[in-house]
Design brief:
CATH topology of the largest domain: Rossmann fold
Number of helices: 16
Strand order of the largest sheet: 4-3-9-10
Radius of gyration: 27 Å
CATH architecture of the largest domain: 3-Layer(aba) Sandwich
Length: 482
RNA sequence: GGCGGCAUAGCCAAGUGGUAAGGCAGCGGUCUGCAAAACCGUUAUACACCGGUUCGAAUCCGGUUGCCGCCUCCA
């Protein structure tokens, strides 16, 4: 029994989450159509649902998570044609890339990751049912869904057929009975991928693959269906029509949609040429910085991708690692199992409120500040109570990290790695730096502050920052400025 | 034209009717030879505007303005 509340697009309200089968959750999320590289918008959707699934598991649900690849579609066919390769080759290439990027982003694999082309049989079965039940009709080798036969059509997106017709620019297809009818099965054209069907050779339309695959793996009626907000209409609306039309019962309980990513205040779009591809982002920023950035906003709000936000997110993640490092230094790096403490409880309260990761992250920073102060006060020898508090917080922090998909590295390694990257990028010679620091230490011993400061300036010009500590001098590479 | 969303300090951002989390930047301080790092303090008579409901609203209702999204492939 939890207190999890989830905003449901279908009802436009936050509702208490009750799974259909106690203790189990079935969730389907629309994955990419694999015709091009994944952009930051895909990253948001995938990361958001990754965290949702991780959280559901953390609070004890057994989750079956299905995320599909749509690997047959007009865009894929067109792109493959342009590149002179097969659709299969194109989609395999992008699926491979998708996995590489998702691994880099520390996104867990879904339980099942089906491809549309592996489930043509199920797709055909759904269409046959729809034809049988009078929801679909064949016309000239194509099969269409007749929207007027489904009286709930529009219930997800809050539209009504008669209202839409006025202003919508819908491609006119003479074969359709209603302009909003959509294709379930497309008759084959030469050179396109095709499969046999009761209506001749052809291929599935967009939408139907998700109805078929979700039912195949999660049953007629399942708990959560997710995706980007842009999928509400027509994609998810049509899925509901198909699935409920074919099966005659409620399809999904909770519809969950994430907001868009903007770039420097502008909508990301091909015409503006501001499509940011994950690959490129990861060249410039740490993957955990990207996760923190994405999760610092509520998942339903739009989020604006800017360099400044990314730098701040990167600083934030470093601050947490530095804090962990400090506790490890004080208490030793052991990761003893600890029961959940107050930090975790508070985090769950935030997550229970429609997966409020932004509040959860705020909580983490607040705790970091409080315990940094505590460590300032207690010095080298923490009392038993303080020690217990630090150990418990560290354990909770790891638990939270597991849900948010961050803090995956040991702090020492994280900083080493970061240093190594910067050193390489800036072409800095460690031996030179250390020699100069030794020179400076000598100067400082002789209280030759002018010389010491001169060396510090010299190093600073090389982007080396000096930190004089009790045990000696630390140094690190300063961050890139742009 | 239809449907929906958003408007909180210099910037980003949370906010579940009871009196504004968090982060960044800034300022003052502790520490330091001076710095850096870390920490402390400080930064919204106030949540676009106007009304209303309420003992009480950023939070509910109505209206106004501005921005955005969807209605066409899109995470």
């Amino acid at each position: 029994m939890t207190n999890l509340k989830i905003y449901n697009t279908l009802t436009r309200k936050k509702e208490t989450f009750e799974p259909i089968k106690p203790g189990k959750v079935g969730i389907y999320v629309c994955g990419p159509t694999v015709y091009d590289a994944c952009h930051i918008g895909h990253a948001r959707s995938v990361v958001v649902f990754d965290v949702i699934v991780r959280y559901l598991r953390a609070i004890g649900y057994e989750v079956t998570y299905v995320r599909n690849f749509t690997d047959v579609d007009d865009k894929i066919i067109n792109r493959a044609g342009e590149l002179g390769i097969s659709t299969q080759e194109l989609s395999e290439r992008h699926i491979k890339e998708f996995y590489e990027e998702m691994d880099a982003l520390n996104v867990e694999r879904a339980t099942i990751e089906p491809k549309a082309t592996d489930h043509i049989e199920e797709i055909i079965e759904v269409i046959e049912r729809l034809v049988l039940r009078g929801h679909a009709y064949e016309a000239g080798g194509d099969v269409f869904f007749a929207v007027e036969t489904f009286k709930d059509y529009g219930k997800l997106s809050g539209r009504r057929l008669d209202e839409m017709q006025a202003g919508a620019r819908v491609e006119i297809d003479e074969k359709k009975r209603n302009p909003f009818d959509f294709v379930l099965w497309k008759g084959a054209k030469p050179g396109e991928p095709m499969w046999d069907s009761p209506w001749g050779k052809g291929r599935p339309g967009w939408h139907i693959e998700c109805s078929a695959m979700s039912t195949r793996f999660l049953g007629y009626h399942f708990d959560i269906h997710g995706g980007g907000k842009d999928l509400i209409f027509p994609h998810h609306e049509n899925e509901i029509a198909q699935s409920e039309g074919a099966l005659g019962e409620q399809f999904v309980n909770f519809w969950v949609h994430n907001g868009f990513v903007k770039i420097d205040q502008e909508k990301m779009s091909k015409s503006l040429g501001n499509f940011l591809v994950i690959k490129e982002i990861l060249k410039q920023y740490h993957p955990e910085a990207l996760r923190v950035f994405l999760l610092s906003n509520h998942y339903r709000s739009p989020v604006d991708f800017t360099h400044q936000s990314m730098v701040e997110a990167g600083d934030g993640i470093e601050k947490i690692y530095a804090f962990q490092q400090r506790i490890d230094g004080l208490l030793g790096p052991s990761r003893n199992e600890q029961g959940p403490g107050p930090l975790w409880e508070n985090f769950c309260r935030a997550m229970d409120d429609d997966f409020n990761t932004a509040r959860g992250i705020g909580l983490v920073f607040e705790t970091v500040r409080q315990l940094n102060r505590l460590m300032d006060d207690i010095g080298e020898r923490p009392g038993q109570q303080d020690q217990a508090r630090l150990v418990s917080t560290r354990a909770d922090l790891m638990r939270i990290g597991d849900v948010l998909g961050i803090l995956t590295e040991a702090p020492d390694k994280f900083f080493e790695q970061k240093q190594a990257d910067l050193l390489e990028r800036k072409g800095i010679d460690i031996a030179v730096v250390e020699r100069r620091i030794a020179d400076r230490a000598r100067a400082r011993e002789q209280k030759d502050w002018a010389e010491a400061d001169r060396i510090r300036d010299e190093l600073s010009a090389m982007d080396i920052l000096i930190e004089d500590r009790a045990g000696g001098t630390n140094w690190k590479v300063s961050k890139p400025k742009d």
